[in-house]
């Protein structure tokens, strides 16, 4: 992809603006459609050489125009091709009408189609621009294709998926392959869209990168090192442990100390200069029996913490893993309001009855990272979480703005959001990362990066990416202990 557009994600409205700008610049829009349809036909022939029949579904807009072009190329290649259309094709306008007039195949209504063995479906009904539930007849068609277990190649996006949110709008095809053009959409990466797209191919149809970048909002991208590597601390030969940051992780009770230790060792291996576990007197022995490189400090109550915080070298903290829910957690967080904090698990749930109390503590330059999973997110942001009109990116950004924090909205499609509106979608986490204690390791990694001076959003994004890479390194069947041991600094 020219000029490294591969990580850029454009919403459907932004892509529509790109198309309009390309046409305004003198680029022939029908030539773009011709290239898109030809690319779809080539992908179908390449991916499905054993197809007995290509079944092309054409919609009422430009996605349907791409499909008419694809059908023409498939027929001209000698492949058996049949065509079915949604609505009256005589009502097509512009490039789509021109594409239909150039296709010699006589189409039939979608309701006529009955799956046959050896069919390969080319889905050109809606693409990424759909913003409402699919019509009833399309839902029935999707069910017939799904029940027949036919391979589907989707043009742009499987019909029925929202290109911005990745949500299913009533019903959606499960594609084996999807071909899109110039850049991906958020819906290609967000769940369940990522799974329903199958193998995704991005094809360059010739729109200049300068036009794409001019129209792209740039607020949403894939989480890759390009998004945060500029914020990594520079390696220097002349340094010492305090220059690399001191991370403090709070331990839970004597019978719940393991989570903090996994966070602590992860932060140390992620590059923090030194790491200390802060534990109550009752939990000191349990921790001491398992610690070597990680230090230990007794903190029983807020008074102990306040006294310790007189050491201004203590700037970065992780609170939550195994800590316990309640007033003690809230008091400790209040004491840390002027420091950098990763708040996870029990720390988040401790504010479920009054989230605003937490948000009011961390105003000014963002220095708070919140790492909620779905349930924790709904407890802190119930109105945002329940809003069906918002996708995961929208929810994460709204939460980040309200909390003035970097939000790590966890899941198979983890979204990292900043109060300034930036959002990154993470894609490198393997399925086997879903294991008990994995979140404790993530909190520690983010804390270790935050301790080294990375801004909250960049530390969160880099931590999520490193967490996924570490899981690949550790391999299938990993435990949280394996994951922590496999962490390597960026």
UniProtKB/TrEMBL annotation:
Required co-factor(s) are: Mg(2+); K(+)
Pfam families, sorted: Carb_kinase, YjeF_N
User: Which residues bind K(+) per the record?
Assistant: 63, 123, 159
Could you tell me the EC number(s) of this protein?
A: 4.2.1.136, 5.1.99.6
The answer, when asked if Nucleotidyltransferase is one of the entry's keywords, is: no
Residue ranges constituting the YjeF C-terminal domain according to the UniProt record: 224-490
Signal peptide segment: none
Ranges where the YjeF N-terminal domain occurs: 15-213
Q: How is the cofactor bound?
A: Binds 1 potassium ion per subunit.
Reactions catalysed according to its record: (6S)-NADPHX + ADP = AMP + phosphate + NADPH + H(+); (6R)-NADHX = (6S)-NADHX; (6R)-NADPHX = (6S)-NADPHX; (6S)-NADHX + ADP = AMP + phosphate + NADH + H(+)
On the tree of life, the source organism's domain of life is: Bacteria
Keywords for this protein: ATP-binding, Isomerase, Lyase, Metal-binding, Multifunctional enzyme, NAD, NADP, Nucleotide-binding, Potassium
Q: Where does (6S)-NADPHX bind?
A: 62-66, 127-133, 156, 259, 322, 373, 440
What this chain does, per the entry, is described as: Bifunctional enzyme that catalyzes the epimerization of the S- and R-forms of NAD(P)HX and the dehydration of the S-form of NAD(P)HX at the expense of ADP, which is converted to AMP. This allows the repair of both epimers of NAD(P)HX, a damaged form of NAD(P)H that is a result of enzymatic or heat-dependent hydration.
Q: Which family does it belong to?
A: Belongs to the NnrD/CARKD family.
NCBIfam families in the cross-refs: yjeF_cterm, yjeF_nterm
* Protein name in UniProt: Bifunctional NAD(P)H-hydrate repair enzyme
């Amino acid at each position: 992809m020219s000029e490294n557009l591969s990580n850029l994600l454009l919403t459907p409205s932004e892509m529509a603006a790109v198309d309009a700008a390309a046409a305004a610049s003198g680029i022939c829009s029908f030539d773009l459609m011709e290239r898109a349809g030809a690319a779809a036909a080539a992908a179908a022939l390449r991916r499905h050489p054993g197809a007995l029949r290509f079944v092309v579904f054409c919609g009422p807009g430009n996605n349907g125009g791409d499909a008419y072009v694809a059908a023409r190329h498939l027929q001209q290649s000698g492949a058996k091709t049949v065509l079915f259309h949604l609505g009256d094709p005589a009502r097509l306008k512009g490039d789509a009408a021109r594409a239909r007039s150039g296709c010699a195949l006589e189409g039939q209504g979608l309701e006529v189609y009955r799956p046959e063995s050896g069919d390969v479906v080319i889905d050109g009904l809606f693409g990424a621009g759909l913003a409402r539930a699919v019509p009833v007849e399309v839902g029935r068609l999707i069910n017939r294709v799904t029940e027949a277990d036919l391979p589907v190649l989707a043009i742009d996006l499987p019909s029925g998926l929202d290109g911005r949110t990745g949500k299913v709008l009533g019903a959606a095809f499960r594609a084996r392959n999807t071909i899109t053009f110039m850049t991906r959409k958020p819906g290609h990466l967000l769940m369940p869209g990522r799974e329903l797209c199958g193998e995704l191919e991005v094809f360059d149809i010739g729109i200049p990168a300068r036009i794409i970048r001019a129209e792209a909002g740039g607020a949403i991208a894939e989480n890759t090192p390009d998004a945060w590597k500029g914020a990594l601390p520079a390696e220097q030969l002349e340094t010492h442990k305090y220059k690399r940051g001191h991370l403090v992780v709070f331990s839970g009770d004597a019978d719940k100390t393991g989570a903090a230790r996994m966070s602590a060792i992860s932060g140390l291996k992620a590059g923090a200069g030194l790491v200390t576990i802060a534990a109550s007197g009752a939990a000191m022995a349990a921790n001491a029996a398992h610690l070597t490189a990680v230090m230990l400090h007794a903190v029983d109550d807020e008074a102990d913490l306040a006294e310790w915080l007189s050491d201004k070298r203590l700037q970065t903290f992780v609170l939550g893993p195994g800590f316990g829910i309640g007033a003690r957690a809230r008091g400790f967080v209040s004491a840390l309001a002027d420091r950098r904090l990763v708040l996870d698990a029990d720390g988040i749930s401790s504010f479920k009855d009054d989230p605003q109390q937490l948000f009011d503590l961390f105003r000014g330059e963002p220095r708070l990272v919140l790492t909620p999973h779905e349930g924790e997110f709904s407890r802190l942001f119930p109105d945002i979480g329940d809003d069906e009109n918002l996708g995961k990116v929208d929810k994460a950004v709204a939460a980040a703005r309200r909390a003035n924090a970097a939000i790590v909205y966890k899941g198979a499609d983890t979204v990292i959001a900043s109060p300034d509106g930036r959002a990154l979608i993470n894609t490198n986490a393997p399925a086997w990362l879903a294991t008990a204690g994995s979140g404790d390791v993530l909190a520690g990694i983010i804390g270790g990066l935050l301790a080294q001076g990375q801004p909250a959003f960049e530390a969160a994004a880099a931590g999520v990416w490193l967490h996924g890479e570490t899981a690949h390194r550790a391999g299938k069947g990993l435990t949280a202990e394996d994951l922590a041991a496999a962490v390597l600094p960026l």
